[in-house]
Fold Auxin response factor.
Amino acid sequence: LDQSVWEACAGNSAKIPAVGALVYYFPQGHGEQAYAAPDFSSLSCERAEYLCKVKEIQLLASEETDEVYSVVGLDPWISRSAPSPDDFSLTEDTGAEKSRALSFAKILTPSDANNGGGFSVPRFCADSIFPQLDFSVEPPAQMLNVRDVHGKAWEFRHIYRGTPRRHLLTTGWSKFVNSKKLVAGDSVVFIKNKAGELFIGLRRTARSFGSSGSSHAPSHVGSPS
Amino acid sequence: LDQSVWEACAGNSAKIPAVGALVYYFPQGHGEQAYAAPDFSSLSCERAEYLCKVKEIQLLASEETDEVYSVVGLDPWISRSAPSPDDFSLTEDTGAEKSRALSFAKILTPSDANNGGGFSVPRFCADSIFPQLDFSVEPPAQMLNVRDVHGKAWEFRHIYRGTPRRHLLTTGWSKFVNSKKLVAGDSVVFIKNKAGELFIGLRRTARSFGSSGSSHAPSHVGSPS
DNA sequence: TTGTCGGCCGATCGCCGACAA
DNA sequence: TTGTCGGCGATCGGCCGACAA
């Protein structure tokens, strides 16, 4: 999973520490948020927080829901000298904005998520993310080839039509909605990387529990997406 | 799961020993037929077979495939005296045939399993299992309420029509076929218990492996169905 | 600019008798 | 008696512009 795509799916509020950065690990918070109770048996003493050094970062996506998450490997850090504030502020160098992929997120309306319907493409998304349409033909239309976070290819018909004119995704859209089990309130993220390739990521709304369908969050420590 | 329904689904060739009966347990056969390798670490010595006494019998049905199977609990049996032949021939007392439910099995034809089609009901099945139709109305038809091995209710329209006249299941049948993923060659078993309630069980043909869909048999010792 | 609606057209589903094995 | 076929009517999916927020 490409880092720029992962970041676009996770959103701007998700910050990932750099490998080698110092962070605080809170066992209680880990236990409260993890789906399966973590194994704390190797902890030598009970403390509220542990100063750690980031050993490894994995950027992953759920096979089931397409939601992105990260696995952060930590080493306990024994302070010989007082840590410098800079040690805490290290974040992954994404090339100072310039290598970041261009992305656009939209919350699905009932019309977007309805079976019978297509997807209303906000103008900014069509202009900045999608390839330019050929407006010399009527109606202007093209097939979009996009990949989800697992690398699976999807094809959508992108057309500019109606009165007033607007951008729409039609053919291929409902198959995507059904396959991903999207509902109104979920978000889709369209991403264009530096090579011009298109990706589509998902964010899910909080679901009502108690239904038979169970979508389990991974039991790892993860940064919120 | 009612025993008479289980027996009808399993078929006449499936014989179950009675609790208390003596049986031979073959570890090698168990290992060869089980999906997951059994844990033989508690076996004190290596022998080809072990004389055992049946401690418990569970009659079960696969959640995934509706196929019935049994879990047989065994205790090692130390022979103080030579076992009598009668000890081996004990089978579950089903009330000497008289309490056994009436059942009829049919292998699905391509027409039965096709999406567009209904189910051709053999005359014997309609006459002996289904409730009598009211032939004074044209066409004679009724709704059948049946339960699968999990107790889930299904409804089929049973109609007597066509030239020449024949019994058919129409409305509701294709939903059942799709939901159970039935294909030509699979069998359905219609069962009427003593109370007149209808049940429907399944037997699957040997599937070609290697497909992405994996249907795992339970890893227990079971009697073949 | 874009969310929702009703219209409408084509594809599919599924019920039917004809016919033959 | 019952398996398969083609016909055909009902239903559904999904593309469309109209219109209003």
Observations:
- The longest strand of chain B covers residues 50-61.
- Helices of chain B lie at 3-10, 27-33, 85-89, 110-113, 123-128, 173-180.
- Strands of chain B lie at 22-25, 50-61, 68-76, 102-107, 119-121, 141-147, 153-161, 166-169, 187-192, 198-203.
- Chains B and A do not touch (no CB pair under 8 Å).
